[in-house]
Every structure is written in structure tokens, then in C-alpha cells.
């Protein structure tokens, strides 16, 4: 599983950070998924290897503009490129209304169908051959969701001893079982894949949360997840000064929660534009990292625009800096930091 | 009068060019005006000296997304910065509907009022102390306008000989007359400013046209204008191949028209993303310049993102490259070109 941050700033863009979006793809596949779509997400895509022609679905966490205003432009550009594949848009009903009105009032007719799916439906679940996606309700000024992405259709290993013991000779039926299919033998026996194969590893699971002032809501989801991507809009002192109204989390708050849940990998994002990236200016993004590191002892990253991550099959997480981001030499997230 | 191109690409952004927007300001004043607002216009503003706090009015040429999809984000960001000044938005009714729906469905309430003004109203005219703005209907797939900006309240020179001859002594009344005000003397005489002052130069006039396949529609407006900013989406050969449907102009078509009208300064913009900027790749932006230069013998520029222009009081036009654009060393618009 790979994912790239397309925007890591809260509310408004800065010269170094765009507003929120994240691209996710199963390793080795061209099809991909977008979580949130702040303004200029299509511009960020010009700097990475994801093409709107292969975009499979968009998942919107909540209706705020810094997570949605890039939708009309991205959809219209995909149409100008001649996309014909249907596109699923998982979003609150208001976002559907925004998209429809934007397209209707800009003389835009798309070359492909949109399938709107209500993200706030009870028992929401979305699936394709690569991923199963569920969501968790968060606490924010408007209804907001975290999306939980679980790898699907893991590679199977044949239980060869058992196959031989049951008199099932090597042949096409072995291949079918390995693909997860049921097989009917000539003698009428029906073999289930689960009985004759095993999955030798755990399915990778990633949580991408929207804006949220109560990380505890993710406790259940975190129990079997390997990466948590969560907002940390402020350091605790700024959060205290700003007060509870914006309903965002501090770095301390998320770090404490992740530590308590023993989340192996934590990536903070959605930083207030007041925090400067690099240099010695204050307030500085390094303060968020320092604060989180005091309370969380797993692998911590602070997201930067265009940074690409890979969650390996062995559940390790690495940050592979994108070419476009090459001015920053290390995969370290905090300037001068030692997060990993 | 100064203006900066914030986007010069047609339809979709490229890595070097954003979609359409242009910032215009009276020299020496902080207040400014925006013509069109493609997606990521607020991002481009982070690279220039125009602040949304001083934005006086937005003029939208037509409803297409590459000219309008930046509006919700720009308006919301101005609100997050705490703007309180009302903002005029001159636009087709559909664009007003788009903005309202975008704000309503993203939980955005602005900290300042919007005044919507219908750009397609008959006898449209907009004025403030710096500028008078009229518009001209163009020919495109949807109703589209060119905006004609005429400098207002030019500095006046006192006709001192005439004042003295009429027995009007130097004093506060001279100052009032020079400001363009009417003055009532103690002896009851009423003096009009026009009678005792003169404006020693012509008002600068700039046309910023939207998408258009019939430059002739601007013939009247061009008679007393000093700069024409017009789209040239294609070279003529590409326009012939594409056919008339998109209703855009070729470089040849606009150049021939500008030559015929003896427009002193012509700036082409809104280039199809197929044209590469710089290098030797084809099709190349230099082909548009070469084609235009064959038919137009005034001062020709091809707009680049973030290039800043100044129309002087003597009606000369200069391209002052912005700092952000410094990788391009000359003010020349076409790589290696000799447009001026």
C-alpha cells in the first residue's frame, strides 16, 4: 500500500503546503483512491505519478471547503482528458449538491458517470478487489468521518500436504484454489479455497481521519490498524489559546491517544498555516513534532506535501520522498528532526 | 496601471501555467481588481503582492470552470483572514448561484458581505474612484464578456493664467479646483473645476477579454484602448484541425484584428495546454508568438504566469518580471523570442 500527501495545511494553503488531499494506491497497481480534495488537488497531481484516468473513487471526510473545493476542477479536467470510466464519490449529501451545482452552472457535462454514495449512511462499506473501506464518525463542527482502508484479496499459499493427503493432484484446480476460487472436481467433490489455502500474513490497514477533536472515537478502529493519519492542527498551548470552538486536535492529544492504543505508525497532518516549515521562525512545525514525540514512542511522521509513504507487507512504514520534493534531502519529516 | 497574470492556460492547468485570472491595480494604490478566478487563484496570490484584504471587486468573463472554480476558496480564505469590507462580484447569474451553493454546502459563512452584480445586464457599468468598467459581449459557447477598464480622476493642472485673469487669488479654492471640486467664492461666484483646470493626458484604457472566437466584436472598444489582453488558444493550423466548436481564437486571427485596429499593445494569453513553454518541444508556445508576429507589428507579448505589466502615463507598456518568476531572465515573453 502506498500513499502520498497532496496537501497538509489546515484551512488555507501556504506557499509550502496545499489544503487537504491524500492519494492512496495498492502497491504495483495503477488504480488509486483519493481522500479529500481541497482546492488545487488537480494541480498537485501534476507533480506525482497518479493520473485522474486511473482514479477509482473519492472519499470525502466532511463538507468543509479546504477538503472539497478541488472537486469540480478535478472532475472537469478528467472529462477534458476523455475519461469514460465511472467514478464513485463517497461524500456527505451537501458535497454531492455542491458538485452538481458547480458542474450545472459552469456548462460542464462530464464524459463519464459519477456514482454518488452517501458517506454518512449507516453501516457504510465500500469494496473493490483491492480494498475494503469502512468509516468511523468523528467529532467536528460538521459531521466528519475517518476512512479505514483494509487490504483485500491477499495472496494465498496452497496447503500442499493437505491437498496431497486428500488425493487432489497438482493441476488447474490448484491454481483456482490459490486464486481463492471454489473448485468442483470431476468426482463431484467441492473444494473451498479457505480449506486448502492459507493467508500467510495480516491484511494491512490504514486509517485516514478527517478533522476531529476526539481521537478516542477511533479506539476500536485502531486496535487492528497499522497506520493512523490524523490531524494535529495545533500544539497544545495554541489549542488552549484558540479554545474548543474549531474542534481540532493538538499534537499532544493525538500522540497520547496513539501511544495508549499502541498504534505502530502515526502520521500527523493538517497543520495550522501559522506553523512555519523549516528555518528557525516560530511558531514552527518542529514544535508539533517535539510535542508529539514527548507522548508517543512509536514511529512518528509529520506529513509534508508530496511525501510518499509505503506500508510494506511486513507492516513496516517508510517515507519515500518524491522527486518533486527533492529540496528536502532526508525522508525526515521535521526539519532537523529524528522522528524515526 | 499595473496588472499581473495569475493564470494563462486554457481549460486545464499545467505545471508552468495556471488557469485564467488577472490582477489589476491603479499604480501606487493597494486596492485591486480581479478578472476571472480559475482554481488555485488564491494559491497564485501567495506569490505576488496582492492581498485579498484589499481586493475591491471581481469581474468574471463567463461561467466556465477554468475561469470560476477558484472563487469559493478565495472568498472563504478572505473570510478566514478576517476581511470585513464588502466585495463586489460582477458575474453571470449562474456564477452567483455556484458561489452561493458552494458556501452554503461547505458550512462557510463569510465575515464580509458579497454584492452580486449581473455582468450581463444591459448598459452594465461599474465605477469607483480609480476606474470605470464597461463590458462588451463576445462570441463563445456561453455568454462571455470583455471588460474595458478606463482610468478615472486623472490629475488636473490649474489654468493659473485664467484664474489670475478672473481675479481668483491663490488659496484653498485653487486646491479644491485641482481636486475636481466645484468652488463657491465669497462673492457668490461658482467656479467649475473643468473651467479652471485641464487634464494634460489621455486616460489609460485596458481591455481584458474573455474567451472569444470573434475579435471583431471588440472593434469599437479598441478604438480608444491602449492594451488588448485576448485569448489565443491555438495556432491557426491547430484551430483548423480542432474545428470551430470550442469557439476560441487563433494567434493569427487576434493578431490580424489588432493590426487592423492599430492596437498599440497586444498581450496574448489562455494557451492550450498542448503548447510547451520553453525548450524545443513541440507544439511550442514560440509558435504562437511567431504566428502573431507575422500579422501584428505593434508591441506583442505572450503572457506568462506571474508576469507583471505596467501601463505608464505616457501609454508605454513594460513587462516587469515578478521576483517569483525570476528563473526567466528577460522580460521577453517567448523563450528566445524578440517580441518587443
From TrEMBL, chains A, B:
HAMAP family listed in its UniProt record: RNase_Z_BN
Give the species this sequence originates from. Marinobacter adhaerens
**Binding positions for Zn(2+) 2?**
66-67, 211, 270
* SUPFAM superfamilies, per the entry: Metallo-hydrolase/oxidoreductase (SSF56281)
**Subunit structure comment from the entry:** Homodimer.
User: Any idea which residues are catalytic in this one?
Assistant: 66 (proton acceptor)
Identify this protein by name. Answer: Ribonuclease Z
Q: Which UniProt keywords apply?
A: Endonuclease, Hydrolase, Metal-binding, Nuclease, tRNA processing, Zinc
Highest taxon above the source species: Bacteria
Write down the EC number. 3.1.26.11
Residues annotated as binding Zn(2+) 1: 62, 64, 140, 211
Give the catalytic activity. Endonucleolytic cleavage of RNA, removing extra 3' nucleotides from tRNA precursor, generating 3' termini of tRNAs. A 3'-hydroxy group is left at the tRNA terminus and a 5'-phosphoryl group is left at the trailer molecule
